[in-house]
User: Fold these one by one.
Assistant:
Number 1:
Amino acid sequence: MSLGNLDSVRFFAPELWLSAGTLVVLLVDRLVAASPRRSQIAVGLALAFLCVATVTTSQLPTLPQQIFNGLLVVDPWATFFRYLFWTATGLAVLMAAPSREISAGRMGEYCALLLAIAVGLSLMTSSADLVTATLGLELVSIVSYALAGFRSRNRASAEAALKYVLYGGVASGLMLFGMSWLYGMTGTTSMVGAAELLNGFVSRSTAAAATPEAAGAVKVAVVLSLVLVLSGIGFKVASVPWHMWCPDVYEGAPTPFTAFLSVAPKAAGFGLLVRFTHGVVEGVDVPWSATIGVLAALTMTWGNVAALSQTNLKRLLAYSSIAHAGYLLMGLAAASTTGIEAIALYLVLYLFMNLGAFLAVGVVSRLEGEGVLYEFRGLSSRAPFTAIAMALFLFSLTGVPPLAGFVGKFYLVKALVDAGGQWHLALALVGLFNSVLSLYYYARVVKAMFVDRSSNTTKLEVPASYNFLLGFFALGVVAFGIYFEGLKRLASASAVMFSR
């Protein structure tokens, strides 16, 4: 039984705190506009509201509960992702504080917009209805368009925002069109039990069809509607063929936001995709698992092949992010609780790896230029700690043991092997091949840092806060590569409602 609006408010408290934080940060930022500590005040307020949201989340009941008359659900899956989003948002705020890409006068806007995105991310993974899922996804998208173009008077940033808007608008239109078809076939926008209604529609329509061609058209309509909905979610996770926006946006957006964009919206997309698959697709007589498997193979292969020739580190990591979306899709293609657990585990590990890699790029581009490959030459002698941390992040993204990336990929491949089908094993082999392939372009960066020599021998003055964050991410990559059982148990607990 779902709760009414008033009874639901206390379950929605973390998002309400962050919504209030968005307004407070903007208001206080205007009131202290003349203060030399304006930037620090904005960062402090944003972190304070994120801490309050985290504490409030920890006090929520653990038993699943539908709220707002069934529009949202509070359960272990939503709670797991809430913690992930609040952490990623807080780290993105800390990464922006010393950045030269975001001026002190605009730090309040940046922090407020990040808090607004965090609310949208939570809505995506907490949605039990297509309407609220769309609201959450659009809130994330619209605010992201603004942050992608946040570097004023920067041509690359303006181009990134424009491309993001155009691709995002098309993806949202396709998704809404697919949702309208689903509503027409099931009579509901709820994702709870929609698979049974969709199966009932297919059975009735097939029985009433006058010809085999008409019966086949019904299944085509169902498949097409699901693919259209997948377009919107696929755009958010940057999977093939909805990945085209990713390299340009990652390159043009401010580096701290690019780091956030590569982790949090991707996690929210997969959180929503799992709910959509479990509630709407599972049990419907369509080859959904095999379709996801094909998308996984195409996504990881295209991302890795395209990254081979990149010399701009932000574009290289953008294609790497596309490839990692393919790895994560392997867990969904396994069509099992083990696969869902592997997705949740990998997303947490990916936060440490990818935020750390983008932070290292931000350190070099902040002090050197644009973050292209030749700027990393001789980095081991000019900023040794940054170079060592970057090498750890890149080897972890490759999946080299005993780093965290190996653990994540191991469980994704294990989920496919446990599924037992021949095509599952073939997809696992494709994933392993792509991991080996990715080593080439990651190793190019490591070679530039530790083997190549640069004509510039000036030591880089890295801010203390950046060194602290690099150490934090590097510690997570190493520690979770060795001691991962606790995190694995959390991932398993989050996916308990998807058990078959």
Note: Residues 155-186 form the longest helix (32 residues).
Number 2:
Amino acid sequence: MQNFIRMTFGGLSKQYFFRQLFFGSFFFAMIIWVQVMNPQQIKYDLIVVSAICTLLYPYSRFVYERIIGFIVGENVFFVAAPFMLFVKLFTMLLCWAFAIFVAPVGLVYLYFHHSRAV
């Protein structure tokens, strides 16, 4: 069991994992902030789901970057910085929101990738 956890959840580099966790925590902080601003309607289930999405976000983002890397390859696109930042923020939000559904794909990929390397 410990080997399974190491090959899946420990499959990303620490630097990549904590960087993505840092960015994913902004969305979690926004949810908490909105809940605190409206204390009569605090939804604890939303907070729990948001925490799970935040913890799974690095794996969801890993899947997204692998797919985009496959489609785009080594090509470079020159676009306006505000547009690119908007697209980046939008894709981060989508990866965070759907992390519960997308991250298992990344975990399965990491497991098979690391099991072949052993």
Note: Residues 2-117 form one domain.
Number 3:
Amino acid sequence: MVKIRIKMKGIMVLVLVCIICTYLVSAANIGLSPATFDYREVLRGGYSEKTAIISTDSDKPITVEATPRGAIKDWLDFSQNFTVSKGKPYSLRVAVTPPADMPNGEYDGFLRLMTSAFGEGVEGHAVGVIRSSLDLAITVEVTDVEIVDCSAYGFKVQSAEEGDDIVFSFDISNSGNIRLKPRIIIDIWDQDQISIVKTEEFSNKEILPTLKDEFVVRVKSNDLEIGQYWADVSVIDCYSSQTLTFDVLEEGALKADGVLTSILTRKTAEVDETVPIKVGFKNTGEKEVEAYFKGQITFGEKIIQILETDRFTVLVSESEEFNLFFTPKQVGKYVISGRVFYSSKRTFESSTVLNVVTKKFQLSYLVTPLIYIVLIVLILFLFYKIRKEKKLYINKLKHLKT
């Protein structure tokens, strides 16, 4: 009977521990696409880049840690820690740079992606999660053969007012394995396309292998009369070219217009916490503009801080984001307001509210470790009780035999 009682006690405690753990632990699985990276014809000392999408079935943000393994682990450049949640996948960029003295051949390795043991919930409460992991298999082919391969596309030009720059833009994709500084030639013809009135050459922007980027070049219009012109835009290295047309117009012919799209910050913050402020602006006019944000932060009737950003050139139909920071020093409601100024014009004023609360102790950070400590103590106490009961039982048997 004593044996049975001891076993039942042990089973009951173990069941209790399992029940507690069941309530404390929630599974969080992660997904990976693609599951393998195959870098072909990467130049010694060169560069190549690919992107994988990391997803999860957890509604709460889960921290994922990336660890390189294998012969190529020192070649990889990536984000070591990042956060992912359901509906908010993470784009993991993995770049590889083989050493300049590495012999030709194929090299293997992998990137282990593992969720953290504890996740931070949306409400800020610590929650235990089962650690799950995936391996991103990576193969790198190293070569000493230089490959030049690129393409240019999406050529555009904007008409300009007399004296303003003529802005040409296009995209270049570097499909080779060497760094490129593409040579760009722009020939401007008269309206009848009989004679070239101006030629400009550019080669001042670099693009890495496997990447694509937007190129913007500017041509002065001071020596061009008002009227229509044609332009042959050639990207020599990519064997790409296109003919465009544009106008040089009288000053004031193009409309400058823009919209302050948003002032974004957190709804609440704590005292002495640095809070980011993001201001969005879109150029909705017919010409590029130089824009900047100017505003203020008020606390009651008092101006706490003046806000002003650097000036940025914003192309037609493009958007710009101005970034600022604010560190509140006391509890209360702060109003962030301002306008974007551009081409001697200004947008409507916009504003947002930041509520600042007292800095509080984050008890949630201690809850989970304390629970595990309690569980460990409970298990140790269980073993102690079992040994004690077993010892009493043995002594009773010895006593009965004597």
Note: The longest strand covers residues 105-115.
Number 4:
Amino acid sequence: MKIIAYILAGILIFFGVLFIWGAFGSTPHPQWILVGIASVLIGFGLIWFAQRNQAQGAAGSGDNITYKVDLPSSTKIEQMKCNSCGGSLKADNVKMIAGAPTVECPFCGTTYQLTEEPKW
């Protein structure tokens, strides 16, 4: 849709400039100036609309990013305890920060990075 708007805007601006230019030819046509100006303004309006529509699509799309945290097979979320206070942690407490799984304890507020223990 955006490409079609740009192509149509280019055509309108091109013909608008031609109408304005033709209005000052050997036989003056003052009404062509109005047609040319209207065509150019509509063309620039289409460009503005396509830009605005693109910006709203990027900002208001509401795309959710889901990170899948791959924990060792022996780790169960229900069994996780805070390293600082020993409070029970839930899956909601695990978040991705700078590409690493981190835990924020709801009881003491401690934030630390999860480390994978060796499996042997």
Note: Residues 2-59 form one domain.
